Amino acid sequence: MLRPDAQRTIADLRALAAFGRVGTGVNRRALTGEDMAARAWLVERMRAAGLEAEIDGIGTVIGRTPGAKRHVLIGSHTDTVPKGGWLDGAMGVIFGLEVARAAMEAGLPGEVGVEVASFCDEEGRFAGLMGSSVFCGTRTLEDALALRAEDGAVLRDAVAAAGLAGREVARLDPARHVAYLEAHIEQGPVLEQAGKQIGIVTEIVGVERGRVIFTGRSDHAGTTPMEMRRDAMMAAARMMTAAQDVLREAGSQGRVTVGAVEEVRPGVINAIPGAVRFTVDLRHPDAQALDVVADAFQKAAESIAAEEGVEVAVDRFFTSPPVVFDPDLVAQVEATARELGLSTRRMVSGAGHDAGYMSQIAPTAMIFIPSRGGRSHCEEEWTDWDHVVDGTRVLYHLARRLIAS
Known about the structure:
By secondary structure, the chain is of the alpha+beta class. It has 2 domains: 6-205 and 322-404, Aminopeptidase; 206-320, Alpha-Beta Plaits (2-Layer Sandwich), CATH 3.30.70. Helix content is 36%, strand content 24%. It has 12 helices and 16 strands. Strands 3, 4, 5, 6, 7, 8, 14, 15 and 16 form a 9-stranded mixed sheet that branches. Helix 1 (6-17) crosses helix 3 (90-105), helix 8 runs antiparallel to helix 9 (287-308) and helix 10 (327-339) packs across helix 12 (385-404). The two termini are 13 Å apart. The mean pLDDT is 95.
């Protein structure tokens, strides 16, 4: 029924990578010229396959087999981080295109068809998972249009500049969408190190992000005795070091990252820092454990502030609870891979994906394929072609199960 064409899939991946190419990677930020050119190309590829395809009012590309009453939705994203990799997100979209294309060639539509989505701004130029959050109704269209990027661009203006203003916005319809499937490179080293071909994603970790601000007093670096200082940087450095200790107490499955020191005031070599601001990213697959870690982190920051004679404020500005995928659909993914003779490993995704929002409304499953060296979000990102072929086979046969059921 569905016959994957691996060479056609690879050719499409290579063609898509030409939009915004930087060295061996890609720079394709959401709603930029490079991104919109890639989306226009994708629409044309969909239409050439016989799909009904369009770009919606916020930049999400939708293509579907015509005539079907219900659809298996397959998707991911084609925007990238700055100077990112060429498979992150893009692979899942092209896999979806190939499934739909093969379905059309096999004589569909039937009652159940295939719908393909490339969600806009998964990587967060304006807000991470923006397109899929609007698609699912988690974020209102008005809230999305008011989002502002770090470069000052407002989404409403970017949408207008791209010629999309006023277009209808695509929505997830539980009555029409049978399930959501997403294939992705792992973006980590687990599958490669374990020698497994397919990752069966059971859940996505919860995320808590905060901004920590230590405020002391700026004084002269040479004339202020050490015991009389209120050094905000010393408190910040202690907290950054203590972060891993706080996490270890909650178990090894968690992750903590101090990703950015956003401000040091006054920021000169001969003055004691009076204020330091930095970010913290906490992740854990267990919601209760994530809360415990976040609370422990805040208490540790308050304790260190008291010891250093400074003040501290912790702004916990983002929380995303863990997501557990549909157990029955996950079991079907695993069974499909094993029937194809592929080795599997059940695993938790440490990164967020559009599938997280989809799972709140429709049965959802994900597969991972290995990333060489675990590299991603960089120009060195690579996945061997045999793994790409394995991934297409699993997705094809899984879609066949769902279309036939």
